[in-house]
Amino acid sequence: MASKKYSFLTGLICLLASYSFAQTPTGTGYDVLDSSVVPSRRMAQHTEFINGTYNYPAKPRNMWEIGIKLGALTVSGDVASQFLTFPNFGIHVRKAFGYVFSARLNYMYGYAKGLNWLPSGNYSENEAWTQHGYTGIVYYNYKTNIQDLSLEGLFSLNNIRFHKSKVGINVYGLVGIGGSLYDAKVNALNAQNQPYNFASIVTLPNTHKNRGEIRDQLKDAMDDTYETAAEDHGERRPKLFGMTYKTVGHFGGGIAFKLSNRLNIALEDRFTFTNDDLYDGQRWAEQTGAEPVLTQNYDTYNFLSLGLNINLGSRAVQPLWWLNPLDYAYQELRKPRLMILPKPVLPDADGDGVTDQFDQEQ
């Protein structure tokens, strides 16, 4: 199922990308002489540039970008994750501070699910299972609601071109920091509020090969309620709206395809470090010793998304990450409009008004 969804996203991207190349003009998309796109605080520089007393044009006013995205949220932790695309979404506001660097405020809302295909028995410290009287094996599972709000810096990697004008694709990387809220639930009871009989699940030989069949057995035997609160940190972590709060860091990258000067679509993958081990509701290692021990790795989560972005603003150029700042220089070299050329000096040795190269009297 996951591979089919990835294939669909890839096909959609290729289709829209081909439309982008067919519809998108190259070049800066604005005239450096146009004073209407120059903010008042840079008008003095613009005037000097027009008068030929300053070599650099003023940076133009550029549009804001707002975007909405849908995607798949997965947690990498102690429980095997499942691919879930709905109702995961994100929204952002982005502004360029230069041709390479921009910043955005980004909000993400989503659910992540997981289901282990190997049985576990070392859960004596996990009240999510012990409160229901489990004593035998269980199959760890979770459904976690994750929300985060972050400030991110984005770096465009391909908009400064030396051998061609700007094309309709923008590749970027991102880093950021923010706050994350999560609330994990466990599916421990059936429709009659009774513990599941996990012992009825047939553990097949060559488990890796047959994990899909084991998961199918579990899905047939279980409902989709996730009625039990997973283990959390209690008072050791701050809470907001009943959810656990954690400061997180992000990094990732994306590729945007330009549809017009106002619209583009972007395929993006963002990876989040949490320094927390309970996003999947499980933190106890499987071992044979008498005392349970915590796992050694913190959970992370990943948001793969496809988004639609809109540029907003009047008397402004496109966001600067779509422009090639070298366009003006190359255009001026080819077809000078502002270049100050030296006055030609034609030698006339005998002073008769005919330049020496045409003077037959010499």
Written overview of the protein:
It contains five helices and eleven strands, in the order H-H-E-E-E-E-H-E-E-H-E-E-E-E-E-H. It has 362 residues and is an alpha+beta fold. It has an eight-stranded antiparallel β-barrel. The chain is elongated, with a radius of gyration of 30 Å. It starts with a helix and ends in a 28-residue tail after the last helix. The model is unreliable at 16-27 (pLDDT under 50).
Keywords, separated by commas or semicolons:
about 35% strand, about 350 residues, single chain, about 15% helix, alpha+beta, elongated
Strand content: 25-35%
N to C succession of SSEs: HHEEEEHEEHEEEEEH
Summing up helix and strand content along with how strands pair, one would put the structural category as alpha+beta
Query: Distance N terminus to C terminus?
Result: 90 Å
> In terms of per-residue confidence, which ranges show pLDDT below 50 for 5 or more consecutive residues?
16-27
Gross morphology? elongated
Q: How many helices?
A: 5
Q: How many DSSP-defined strands?
A: 11
CA-based gyration radius = 30 Å
Averaging pLDDT over every residue, what do you get?
A: 87
Biggest β-sheet: strands ordered side by side in the sheet: 1-3-4-5-6-9-10-11
What is this structure, in a nutshell?
By secondary structure, the chain is an alpha+beta fold.
